[in-house]
Amino acid sequence: MKNITIATLSIAILISLAGCGRKDVSIGIIGGADGPTEIIISDKEKDGANVSNPWSDWNSVTEAENAAGFSFGLPETIEGSYVAESYRTMSGETPIIEVTYADEDWTVVVRKAPGEDQDISGIYDHNDVQTEWRNGEQITYYRQHDSKSGSLKIVISDDGYSWSVYAPNGFWGGSWDGFMISIFEQ
After folding, report:
1. In contact, 97 and 112? CB cutoff 8 Å
2. Who has the most CB within 10 Å: 25, 52, 84, 86?
3. How far is it, in rounded angstroms, from Cα 71 to Cα 138?
4. What confidence score (pLDDT) does residue 29 get?
5. Helical H segments across the chain, by residue range
6. Which candidate, 67, 65, 64, 83, places its Cα nearest to that of 75?
7. In this structure, are strands 82-90 and 161-167 parallel, antiparallel, or unpaired?
8. What is the pLDDT of residues 120-136, one digit of tens each?
9. What are phi and psi of 86, to 5 degrees?
10. Per-residue DSSP letters for 67-108?
């Protein structure tokens, strides 16, 4: 009797979970004269239920540029210490190249996409805005409201492209300017 109660409760829980998730759950019970001896659970993904990762990883900026169909244009090292560590692209109507630079305690994620006036950063919790003009182009700085993190997102439109520069912990010294110079020198 105890086995039947456990099996019944297990089945009830699994059926309720199957209704909430993205998986079809098939449940089978192999039983003997003394009650169930094994519960078989099979889960298989529904067609179209998974959202595929839109990002592709590459080993070099050249591979990322070839996949995206345009040049990224920034150097592998910025400000003498930020070194490019990873390269990704997102394909689609507006392809994006993303390069992550790192310098010991600092990380900067730079994205570039064709078309101007787009926020391609993927960062949406930065609300404090400051705008300036440089080289005839508008640069918009976004910070987290009431945050002491130093996190900074910079959005730029220049020469037919949208850029985002995101530093989750800020930049050391005035190193952010090295990224701006690299973007505008293209």
Report:
1. yes
2. 84
3. 21
4. 40
5. 2-20, 61-68, 176-184
6. 83
7. unpaired
8. 999 888 777 777 776 67
9. -145, 150
10. HHTS-----SEETTTEEEEEEEEE-SSS-EEEEEEEETTEEE
How far apart (Å, rounded) are the C-alpha atoms in residues 166 and 107? 8
CA distance 73 to 96: 13
Helix (H, G, I), strand (E, B) or coil at 145: coil
142-157 pLDDT, tens digit per residue, is 777 666 778 888 888 8
Closest by alpha carbon to 8, among 26, 21, 27?
27
pTM assigned to the model: 0.69
Tokens of 179: 């990224």
Structure tokens at 3: 């086995």
* Tokens encoding 103: 């310098």
